[in-house]
Specification:
- The chain has 410 residues and is α/β, with parallel strands linked by helices.
- It folds into two domains: 299 residues, 3-Layer(aba) Sandwich (Rossmann fold); 95 residues, Helicase, Ruva Protein, domain 3 (Orthogonal Bundle).
- The protein contains 13 helices and ten strands.
- The strands form three sheets. It has a five-stranded parallel β-sheet, with helices on both faces. Strands 8-9-10 form a three-stranded mixed β-sheet. A two-stranded antiparallel sheet has the order 4-5.
- The N and C termini lie far apart (70 Å).
- The structure holds adenosine-5'-triphosphate and magnesium ion.
């Protein structure tokens, strides 16, 4: 009926060498859960299977702009993930006959839409169980900080505590660049040897998780007793790591006088869709060495089947995001308070120019506009409802006057 592969979901099937680990304790059944195999099969059968192209467009509907090359690569990965899952669990195809699962590393400047892409694509559009974990909060087992094995606990929670569903999910390892080991004095000048403990330790534990292996996962995030564990296979879990890797350019440049290195280079044209599934290209191997210089275990970086470079968003894209997302949101909020909000086009350029100067990407856009409107919002909101939604309330005008933003109420 269904090829379940090496997954272990109950005690009798736990194969972890010593056979002393209780895979699912009574504790696991405490909560009423949609646990059954039928639920799982139905979930997989009902998983939407839009084409990579359709996913690309749907992202636009969720407000995603620009980043075309990266977006194409990640949409294709998402499509492949769903296809692979369906082939294994619905068609009963053996894993060995299928392409290996994908682990992606998204690297690029801050505020360029890495985390947003993972959230929108996997969580909102595909609705696959997705755990977004900030990897900086983890440290090597036994040290202060969360134990890396609880990364999969989060995925379990995202999957309504159903281990079968969790085992086809997606784990986003956010801020991966922050666990670079301190051995590299080029970026952590003077940090010397003290930083190694957490960085390298977590990297080593991730190594186990990223390759196909069985991991003993605590059922709860807090103090788990010995029995409260489940054994999960990571054979079908897709890992997507994100990182800004600041300072990477310098390292790459220093390592090779030749240019066209690192994530600043133009990515290969997307002409050959298969190029994504096969291993590293020559430049990517070179990248691995750069990542090593940055403070990563080369074998950890090698576990990523594809390193996707993200570009800094340009002025036109930032303006588009501002207009389509931030401004619309603000207009709605003011309308709910009984005000019309009129924002001049020049204001958008002004805010975009500031964002480019600060190099914060799309991140600061909303904050910047909000700050400008704070005073008038403070004075006016909730005072006495100027109009009850009839649309003829007072108007808040924002424009640029003599190089400064000017907010007036009329
Ligand atoms: N390409 C984009 N299209 C639309 N909005 C974007 C885009 N990139 C960023 N944004 C906006 O900026 C916010 C921050 O982006 P995001 O969290 O994805 O940055 P990041 O690339 O993960 O940066 P960091 O490396 O600092 O984590 C998003 O929540 C979103 O509102
Ligand atoms: Mg991020």
């Amino acid at each position: 009926m269904v090829a379940t592969g090496p997954r272990s979901t109950n005690a009798s099937r736990a194969r972890t060498g010593s056979a002393t680990i209780v895979a699912v304790s009574a504790e696991a059944h405490r909560k009423p859960r949609k646990q059954g195999l039928e639920h799982f099969i139905k979930f997989v059968r009902d998983l939407p299977e839009p084409t990579p192209r359709a996913l690309f467009r749907q992202l636009e509907e969720h407000g995603y702009r620009g980043q075309d090359a990266a977006r194409r690569a990640v949409c294709l990965m998402a499509y492949r993930h769903v296809r692979r899952i369906k082939r294994i669990y619905i068609d009963g195809v053996d894993r060995t006959e299928l392409p290996r699962k994908s682990n992606f590393l998204l690297a690029g400047p801050t505020g360029s839409g890495k985390t947003f892409l993972v959230e929108a694509l996997f969580q909102k559009i595909l609705r696959i169980p997705t755990a977004l974990v900030d990897i900086t909060t983890y440290s090597e087992t036994g040290y202060v900080g969360q134990d890396p094995s609880t990364i999969l606990t989060r995925l379990l929670h995202a999957a309504d505590d159903n281990p079968m569903l969790a085992a086809i999910g997606v784990v986003c390892l956010d801020e991966l660049d922050k666990i670079a080991s301190g051995q590299n004095n080029a970026i952590f000048a003077g940090a010397g040897t003290t930083k190694d403990v957490t960085g390298m330790g977590v990297q080593r534990e991730l190594l186990k998780m990223l390759e196909t292996s069985e991991v003993v996962v605590p059922l709860e995030l807090g103090h788990a007793t010995y029995a409260d564990h489940v054994v999960m296979s990571t054979a079908d879990i897709a890992f997507v790591a994100c990182g800004a890797f600041s300072g990477f350019h310098q390292i790459a440049r220093r390592r090779s006088a030749r240019e066209a290195l690192g994530f600043g280079r133009e990515p290969l044209s997307g002409a050959d869709p298969d190029a994504i599934a096969v291993g590293f290209t020559a430049e990517q191997v070179e990248n691995v060495a750069n990542f090593q210089a940055y403070g990563f275990l080369p074998e950890l970086i090698a576990r990523f089947t594809r390193i996707v470079p993200f570009q800094a968003l340009d002025a036109a894209t930032l303006k588009d995001i501002l207009r389509a997302d931030v401004v619309q949101r603000m207009i709605r909020e003011f309308k709910a308070e009984g005000f019309a909000l009129d924002i001049d086009d020049g204001v958008l350029d002004y805010i975009v120019a500031a964002a480019l100067r600060k190099e914060t990407g799309a991140r600061g856009l909303a904050a910047s506009l909000t700050r400008q409107l704070e005073d008038v919002a403070f004075e006016s909101f909730g005072a006495e409802a100027p109009s009850d939604g009839a649309g003829t309330g007072p108007t808040v005008r924002v424009r640029v006057v003599a190089g400064e933003l000017d907010v007036s109420l009329s």
